[in-house]
Design brief:
Length: 740
């Protein structure tokens, strides 16, 4: 037996070690079994939540890191610090935990340490391999971490996959996952399941006595993404990693650490939304200068392509494009190319007139004629515009109106090609003043055989973030792996899609947006692309079919319930022009927050949040416009105007001298069942009176029969007031509150 030592805090015993959370409600027990197998268990308020569960690995050479260990040492530590995110749901985050590091050794020289951190809202633990152990270079066949639960809990899950999480969620008991798994899969151009017992993280669970358990991971760096393998009859879960093209599930070089495995536990669903467990387990910001990173409210020449009104491609005359050899100027346009000069200018005018920061344009570059489904390596060069897209002139025009253009890099999943062109692509962005890129990974990955969530791809996504940071570029990556809090370290990762978003139109289930904050959003913000006012596809794009299943008030509520520093008003200008009074809320609402409160929540049923804007960000947004190469110094975003109660004609200078108001936004969304929200305004300043504008579902609103029926009510309110508001089926509400 190796010597046992303890640095500070509680003294471990020879047979087990125990750690408690700062508030004493969570207790973690670590032990070695009689044959030296490491196990842990977790209790909440004295009740078991995770039964003794195994830890360890199987390596590709057959070595099992599951038993034969002795406890060399256990040391304890604690941390209570506050840090300031560059953007976020609040301006300060408390990182408060107790820590236990157990050092394990084996007679064959293997050393494996496990670091546990216990917060008031949950557990994080990871494996660490020191340099002085026997293992130097080793390949993982599987990580064998278990989560043995205490019952057949209710789960909100999407099925396990190595390539996509663009799925609707299913709510079922753990034991029903196996039989329901196939039914919930949608066709996706790149999807790889590993059988009917797989689910993805973040997995939201609820026990029959009302405990919410959320299992996820944090800080996935140089390691594959974890799915979970469900044993429905034993109510247990086990990590199932994404293999690389050769079947390896992690290529390790000591010293190294794994991502954190997380188990959030609370008896209040609102606390799941308030938790910062995943962010706290990530490393602090890696960038010295973050002055160029800012939240973005944007529109896009995008929905018209998604709905089929226009297209990304330019011509029907080329069966296959050979970049650099295909002379587009000699080809006949098919007449449906969305990213043409005239159309883009129209969007710039609209976005500028309505106080937006930016405009995304897709389909601007050569290669869209055969980008999809053919797994073509040299698919785009990311620098050559189509003949009808005058990139320098459009940027100059946008900047003169205070709008930045957002670049679009669809990689078509050829990461090889993207890395080949990345410097030139980012340099082009710098030359013309683009500071944000939406990237995309549609289709099967090149290098051939890799998966969206395998270790080489995890490394690719981080490579693009570092590279983008060198060029002062913010990134919003679609179809990339779902985030695990890396935006704390790399705050230029301002968005990801990585879940089923608005692009799925009529396929999205009512209730989807009241599940995502419990699952996908736990790891970081989502570019969900809300704001679709016209649900009927045949109206937006004549000849198309399908109706989206939400009300207009639901779409407004999302700007508050779905936190993202990057928020889109996704619908067409024409559709917003038909509902100017509802559109006003999207113009006014902020995208970065001083404080967030979670007033009501139940997964899949309803979420109600109240948020107070971060004034610093609005000031910075006004300065940001002034920094545009051709920018006018007097532009002001819609949100900044609203907060200070300034007229449309107000300038950035007016903002500086304007008297600050106290402003809050409240939003709610609900699922398949209607819900009456009770909003107690006790978060307001009791000494002030506020002007309230409530955007609600009309009494007859319903996502199937009257999705566009809403009411707008103005009133004066105080902190002692309570507002009751009915949300229709798949409905919602939005409320802006500004002190007089
Ligand atoms: C899928 C993305 O999610 C969508 O937003 C984009 O328009 C298309 N790929 C084309 O890149
Ligand atoms: Ca997508």
């Amino acid at each position: 037996m190796l010597a046992l030592a303890c640095s500070k805090g509680q003294a471990p015993s020879n047979t087990g070690t125990e750690l408690t959370s700062p508030d004493g409600k969570l207790t973690l027990n670590f032990a070695l079994t009689a044959n030296g197998a490491p196990v842990y268990s977790l209790d909440f308020n004295g009740k078991r939540v995770v039964k003794p569960s195994k830890l360890g690995f199987e390596l590709c050479d057959g070595t099992l890191l599951t038993e034969g260990f002795e406890l060399a040492d256990a040391s304890f530590d604690s941390c209570d610090e506050t840090w300031k995110p560059v953007w976020g749901e609040e301006s300060e985050i408390r990182n408060h935990y107790n820590e236990m590091l157990v050092r394990l050794g084996r007679s064959d020289g293997v050393k494996m340490n496990i670091r546990f951190r216990l917060f008031d809202d949950g557990l994080g633990f990871r494996y660490e391999f020191p340099q002085d152990g026997k293992l130097r270079y080793f390949n993982i066949a599987e990580e064998l971490t278990e989560f043995v639960l205490c019952g057949d809990h209710t789960a909100w899950w999407i099925s396990g996959d190595y390539d996509t999480q663009e799925y609707n969620y299913t709510k079922s008991r753990l034991s029903r996952i196996h039989s329901q798994s196939l039914a919930m899969r949608l066709s996706n151009v790149s999807a790889t399941d590993f059988g009917p017992d797989g689910v993805q993280t973040a997995l939201q669970l609820k026990t029959d006595d009302g405990i919410y358990i959320n299992i996820h991971e944090a800080a996935v760096v140089n390691y594959p993404t974890a799915n979970l393998l469900v044993n429905g009859s034993k109510h247990s879960l086990r990590i199932w990693l994404t293999p690389d093209a050769q079947g390896v599930k992690g290529r390790m070089q000591a010293p190294c650490v794994t991502p954190w495995r997380t188990v959030m536990v609370t008896d209040d669903a609102r606390k799941v939304l308030a938790s910062r467990l995943i962010l706290n387990l990530n490393e602090p910001c890696a960038l010295d200068d973050v002055s160029w990173i800012h939240p973005v409210k944007y529109m896009g020449v995008w929905w018209e392509m998604i709905t089929g009104k226009t297209q990304w491609s330019y011509t029907s005359d080329v069966p296959s494009v050979q970049l650099g050899k295909t002379d587009y100027s000699a080809l006949k346009p098919h007449g449906k190319h969305g990213a043409n000069n005239e159309n883009v200018r129209r969007y710039i005018d609209f976005a500028a007139a309505n106080g937006f920061d930016a405009l995304l344009i897709e389909g601007w570059n050569e290669g869209w004629e055969d980008w999809f489904g053919c797994q073509k390596d040299y698919v785009f060069d990311f620098v050559t515009p189509y003949p009808d897209f005058d990139l320098p002139a459009l940027n100059a025009y946008a900047h003169s109106k205070g709008i930045r253009l957002v670049m679009h890099h669809e990689t078509s999943s050829s990461t090889v090609n993207y890395e080949r062109h990345m410097d030139a692509a980012y340099a082009l962005m710098n030359r013309y003043g683009y500071d944000a890129v939406k990237s995309g990974y549609v289709g099967n990955i090149i290098p051939y055989g890799e998966h969206h969530y395998s270790q080489p791809l995890i490394n690719h996504y981080l490579y693009t973030l570092r590279k983008a940071a060198d060029y002062h570029i913010m990134v919003n990556a679609h179809e990339a792996v779902r985030p695990t809090g890396l935006c704390r370290t790399w705050p230029n990762l301002i968005g990801n899609e990585s879940a089923m978003g608005t692009e799925y139109r009529a396929h999205i289930n009512p209730g989807h947006t009241s599940i995502l904050p419990f699952t996908r959003l736990q790891g970081g913000p989502m570019d969900y692309t809300p704001g679709i006012f016209e649900q009927d596809m045949s109206i937006t794009a004549p000849g198309q079919k399908g109706k989206m299943r939400h009300t207009i008030a639901n779409q407004l509520g999302l700007y508050v319930t779905f936190y993202s520093p990057l928020q889109m008003a996704a619908d067409l200008p024409d559709n917003y022009e038909r509902f100017p009074d509802a559109f006003q809320f999207i113009k006014d609402v902020a995208v970065d927050w001083e404080k967030s409160l979670y007033l009501e929540a139940e997964p899949g049923e309803y979420i109600v949040c109240a948020r107070k804007p971060r004034i610093e960000t609005l000031n910075k947004a006004a300065e940001g416009v002034a920094s545009l190469p051709d920018g006018k110094k007097d532009m002001l975003s819609g949100a900044a105007r609203f907060v200070y109660a300034l007229p449309e004609s107000a300038t950035a200078r007016d903002l500086v001298v304007a008297k600050a108001r106290d402003v809050w936004y409240v939003g709610g969304v609900c699922g398949e069942k209607a819900h009456e929200a009770t909003v107690k305004l006790d978060f307001l300043d009791p000494s002030l009176t506020y002007e309230a504008v409530l955007y609600a579902d009309a009494p007859d609103a319903d996502y199937e029969t009257a999705p566009q029926a809403y009411t707008i009510t103005r009133s004066q309110v105080k902190a002692s007031d309570i507002i009751k508001v009915r949300m229709a089926r798949s409905g919602g509400f939005a409320l802006s509150l500004r002190s007089l």
